[in-house]
Structure formats: structure tokens, C-alpha cells
Amino acid sequence: MHPQDSENKIPLDRRAFCISAVSLAALGTTACGGGGGGGGGGIAAGGFGTVAAAPQDASAASVAAPAAPTDSSAENAPAPAPSPSTSRKFVHPGLLHTEADFERMRAKVAANAQPWLDGWNRLQANGRSQLGATPRPLATVIRGGDGQNFAQMYIDIARSYQLALRWKVSQDTRYADLAVVFLNAWSSTLTSIEGNADRFLAAGIYGHQFANAAEIMRSYPGWAASDFARFQNMMLTVFYPLNHNFLVNHNGAEITNYWANWDQCTLASILAIGVLCDRPDLYDEALGYYKTGQGNGAGLQAVYHVHPGYLGQWQESGRDQGHCTLGIGLAGVFCEMAWNQGDDVYGYENNRFLAGAEYVAKSNLRDVSGDFYTVPFLTNINRQGTQSVLSTGAQGHRRGVWESVYNHYANRLGIATPYTSLQAIQMRPENDGNNGDQLGFGTLTYTRDPIPTLVPPSGLTARVRAAQVDLSWWGSTGALSYTVKRAANAGGPYTTVTSGITDTLTFTDSTVSAGEVWHYVVVAVNAGGESTPSAEARAAIKAELLMQLKFDEAQGTLAADAAGRFAASTLAGGAAWVAGHEGGAVGLASAADYVSLPAAPVKNLADFTIACWVYLDAISTWSRVFDFGSGQRRYMMLTPRNGAGVVRYAITTVHGYNNQVIEGSSPLPTGRWVHVAVTLSGALGTLYVDGAVAGSNAQMTLSPFDLGETTQNFLGRSQYSNDPFLRGRLDDFRIYHGALTASEIASLAA
């Protein structure tokens, strides 16, 4: 079946979230249970079948480090996002920890400051951080199937990392010398990682962990340059090939066959190996996949859906909670390593990762009544089936992955993390370095002093839906409540709309009327008063033309946007200027002709209108009038004829599995100019042909903004390479913010 053939009209739970203060008595203490494969005692990333429990643990050339991202403990303002250089030069050490981080750890431990001292004491007490141990290297590591022995590797990796930490904080070179012994033993012995599909998990999870241990030790004069080079070679020849193969081939399966954590551990390993081995190509491979990759672990797919108030449903939330917390740990590692190299993945798509972290954190915490918090859930239809409710498997799972997330957003940037912070507090002092899934000890390594000032709320969005405006924003650490203000003119003066918001960082303004334009800000409030206002968000309660391609240029390959808000679009293949319905048009006559639009033309749209004149020379099933997306994972499209023989508009966020559609009763006609338009007003989607309603759907809960930043925006071409190109002409292509009325559509078509 073609992926677009299934129609799924999914209701959206519109509940949102946020708390300003939660009693620590409400913290859940339930031990984890259930879940999937064991990762040495924790819930591992295994997606198919279980992994045997691991046996219990028995008792470089120096490189100068450039300045690390600003630490907010020394500032009265949030740390700015790092600025990468145009020609990549890696920071060393620069994976999970920079030299500035180690300086902070040493200073805090020396001052007996809490909670750093508790974290240090936890590290010193761990059996794997002690002197006297002997490495147990293997030539072949097996994870999955018969003969599993992978625990020997992750135990020795944990020892290497913990010994490296003890050296950096204490400056006692005995720990550095022993860490080098472990690293050298493995690099001179290991030749392959084998097993069933779980071999890719081993290469990903243990790959990024091994790279982190070595990255810390690379500056130690006692690690010979030749030994460090041999270790780098092991990472490039044993771990990376499996990592790369999985991202490209996904073990020969359909790309959505694997849950998010498979991609995520792989991405963490490739990124870490890229830094360790000074390979920008590997680093960019991982960073690029996170933003544009098609698998479930890419950024937009891992956080499957963002509910109002920025609560981001995790891709595995319908599976079990143990794998959800694992995913937070893996994604957090990826974001922190990228940050230390100057790339703000944490902030990607308006802090989408934080939205996911808050969702998973809240899902696994208990409220003051002792019950688990409820979270909204959008039905997730994917290769694994349909998940219509939050899974309670392993709910309440405690995993030491929260300190890095909490400290980045709250203490580097001043962004409130109500549920993530509670998870971090209940795990202190964080250990979790013995189960093979995480390196652990985040209380020592990631804790930062709080920002002393109340920063303004951030990330404010104003989505227009029918006759109302839905606002969402990120809160501020230390805020007790929030006040929403609006003005008729940009910049104010502002009038308070509502105040005292504490339990959800979202507000729906229903006091607006058609034709109005409002400018919103939000301020945070605590005992000391109000913060400065957030950045302003504009909301027009009317249709506004965002893009218009008249195609009247007649020469060159660029089509200007007459509305003046977007860069020119590009005629591709053999697309040519021809006579149009009015003036010129673009002709798509061959099998490779299309128009490429600039990035993200519909990113901020809730209600919208897209309209166009179409002249079909011939009609092919699944050709496209337009298709905006980022590959096959997320797109919205209009086809003149689908597999059932009728015109169809569809939007999906999961490879066509959760299509929401509007269909007509016949295909678009050929041999004449036809006006076609799609509108969305609230949940009502309407398809028009020649100014008349051709179909409608009153349960359209997905909007263009749910697609994120679309990178492939086509006229006449599909996201699917096997679909045919459009044959004919296009004229006067328009995108509106807001839904035109039926009479306005009829006027366009007249």
C-alpha cells in the first residue's frame, strides 16, 4: 500500500502543562519495573526481544582548549548560545565536559560546596572508580543472540570514565595511569562487535561512552601519542562503520521499524567519534541527521508532537517509560556534546528537546495525591502499530539522566524546567554509572549555580485558530506566575489580558474578533515584581497574504515572491516560462520539472489558505500540485489524483501513518485551467475546486506548524522519489496566514 493511502482522523487532546512549584513530598519513589531488554541492570535500548542481565561488577598529545561556552554561574544573565566557526576547529576536551567544567568541579569540591561534594563522594565510593582493577578486553564483543559478553566492555568503559573523572578532579595521576591502561588494553585487542540487531546498540551506546573517556584522557601526558592514535583507529574502524551503516540502512528494515533510541545512541556515537578523531565530516553527519534525518531518533521525530504549553510527546511514550528515560539520556548527551562544540541543538525548534524532557519527566512523577501526573497523548501510528494511550510500563522509572538537561536550561539559560528539575532532585547525588546505559555522576559534572535574576519568558508563539489565539511560552526559573498582555500596535502600550497563570504555560485568548491584529507579550512574576517582557508575538485574526508567485518573470530561473516576505523560488529541471491563466505561468513539461520554494514557508501557520491555478496536460496518480516537507517523515501535499482516483490534500507527521486528509469526489480535470484551494479554520479543513467546495474534514488537528521547519518545499514534485512529477502549468500560487472565506475563494476563482 502506498504510504498515503490510509486515512486517519485523530483527535488531539488539548490539555497542557506547567507547574510553578511542586512539593518535594509529591516526588514518586516507585522503583522501575517491566520494560524491554535489560542493559546490564537498567532498561536498555533494545527494541526487539530482551537482553540477558549483565554479570555483577567485581570488587595523547596535549591540546589547548579554546574557551568553553559561558558558564552562567559567573554572570547575571543566561549564557548565550555558542557560535560555531565557519571552518570547524574542535574544542578539546569537548564532549560531555570541557576544561572549564573540570575547573568548576575542582573548585566546588575543594570548597565542600553542595551538591557537588555529594556527587564527588558518590563517585569515590563507586566500585568502578577504584585503583587496582584489571581490564578484561575482548577481540569480539557480542550483544544480541548467543554468546553475549558485552558487559565486559561496558564495565571497563565505566571504569575508564570514572578513573578519568577522578584524575581531572583530584589531579591524582594514579587514576589517569590506570585509565590509560584500560583504554590501551581495549584498543590493542578489540576488532569487532557482533550479534543480532542489538550489535548496533552496542556500537552506539558504548561508542559514545568510550569516546568520552578517551576525550578526557587525550590531554594526559602519560598517554602516548601512538596509543591515542591506536584508540582513535579503533573508534573509526570498529564502532563508526556500524554506526554509519545503521543510519543508512537501519539493518535492512523500513526506517520507522526502529524506535527513537536506536538512532539516538548511533548519533551520539558518530558525533563523539567525530570530535575525538578530529573528523568534521563525521560530526556533520550526526548533526545533519538530527535535523533532517528520516528515522525516529531525528529531532522532530523523537519529540513526536508538541502539545500546547510545550509538552512534547516522546516517540516511545506509548511503548514504556524505561525506554523513554533512556531516550532523554541519549538525546541529552548528544545536545551537551554539540553545545560544547558551538552548536545549540538544545535550542533546536524552540527547545523541542526540553518539551520532550518535560513530558517524560512529568509522566514519571507523582502529584501531591500520590497519583502519576496525567499528560496529553496524541495517538501515535507508526511501524510498530497504534499507540493510543500513554504506556504505564515501568512508569515511575528513575534513571540518572536529568542533571544535564536541568542545568542547561535552568542554570545556563534561566528557562523553567518544573518536572525535569524534580527528576534531577530525586536522583541526587546522581550515580547510574553501573548499568551500561549511562556514564552517570551528573550531579558532580553538570551542576551549575542558578542565574540570580528573573529572566523574561521566551519562545512565545501565538497561533490563530478560527476566532481565537492560542499562546504558549517557556517559563522563567524563580517565577511564581505569569501575566499575558497585548497591544493593538507593535511595541505597545500593552494592556493585561490575564494574570496569575501558574499551572499551564498556555493561554487561549477568545476575546478577539475577525479583522483585528494583536501583539502579545508575557511577563514572569515573583515576589520581587515582574520580569522584562518576552519577545512580542503577532496574531492577525484575518487572512494575510504571505507568499504569491505570479510566474510573470519570462526569463531566468527565479520566481519572485510578490508579497515580498520570502526569497525567490527556483525553477528546476526543465521548468520554463509559458503563457498562464493571467500573464505568465511556469510550465512543467518533462519528468523532472518542478519549482523549489524557500525553506519553511508554512512553519508558523495554524489556520491557513493555499491557492493556485493549475492546467494539467495529463494526470498521473500521486503527482503533486504542492508538497511541503522534510522528506517522507513530515509533509503536507495536494495531489490531483490519489490511489482512489480523487483529488486529495493530506498532512502527516509520521511517514504517512497518521495522515489527515480532505478528499474530493473526482480528480482535477485536464486540458483547462482549474483553480484549487485548501483552507484550515480551527479543525475544519476545506478543499475547493473552481471556487466550489469539493470536500471537507472537521477533524483536522494537524496544522502546518506541526511539520516544523520544512526543508523541501516543492511545486510539481513529491517527497517520494518514485511518485511522478506534475505535467502541466501552474500560475498565481498563494499562501495565506488565515483561512479565506468561501466567498473570498470564489472571488479568487472567478
Q: Summed up, what is this model?
A:
The chain is of the alpha+beta class and 750 residues long.
Q: How many helices?
A: 15
Uncertain runs are 1-76
Radius of gyration: 27 Å
According to DSSP, the number of beta strands is 30
Q: Which percent bin holds the helix content? A: 25-40%
In round numbers, the mean pLDDT is 90
Main sheet overview: 8 strands, antiparallel
Distance between the termini: 38 Å
Structure classification: alpha+beta
The coarse overall form would be globular
Report the oligomer: single chain
Q: What fraction of residues sit in β-strands?
A: 15-25%
Care to describe what's here?
This protein has 750 residues and is of the alpha+beta class. The chain has 15 helices and 30 strands. The strands form seven sheets. Strands 15, 18, 19, 21, 26, 27, 28 and 30 form an eight-stranded antiparallel sheet that branches. An eight-stranded antiparallel sheet has the order 16-17-20-29-22-23-24-25, with no helix packed on it. Strands 9, 10, 12, 13 and 14 form a five-stranded antiparallel sheet that branches. Helix 4 packs across helix 6 and helix 7 packs parallel to helix 10. Mean pLDDT is 90; it is low at 1-76.
How does the SSE layout of this entry go?
Elements: H1 99-110, H2 116-125, E1 140-142, H3 150-170, H4 173-187, E2 192-194, H5 198-217, H6 225-249, H7 260-276, H8 280-292, H9 299-302, E3 303-307, E4 311-314, H10 321-340, H11 348-363, E5 380-382, E6 385-387, H12 402-412, H13 418-427, H14 442-446, E7 458-465, E8 468-474, E9 481-487, E10 495-501, E11 506-509, E12 517-526, E13 529-530, E14 537-540, E15 544-549, E16 558-559, E17 569-572, E18 576-579, E19 584-588, E20 594-596, E21 608-616, E22 626-629, E23 635-639, E24 648-652, E25 660-663, E26 673-681, E27 684-689, E28 692-697, E29 712-715, E30 728-737, H15 742-749
Parallel strand pairs: 1-2
Antiparallel strand pairs: 3-4, 5-6, 7-8, 8-11, 9-10, 9-12, 12-13, 12-14, 15-30, 16-17, 17-20, 18-19, 19-30, 20-29, 21-26, 21-30, 22-23, 22-29, 23-24, 24-25, 26-27, 27-28
Helix pairs in contact: 3-4, 3-5, 4-5, 4-6, 5-6, 5-7, 6-7, 7-8, 7-10, 10-11, 10-12, 11-13, 12-13
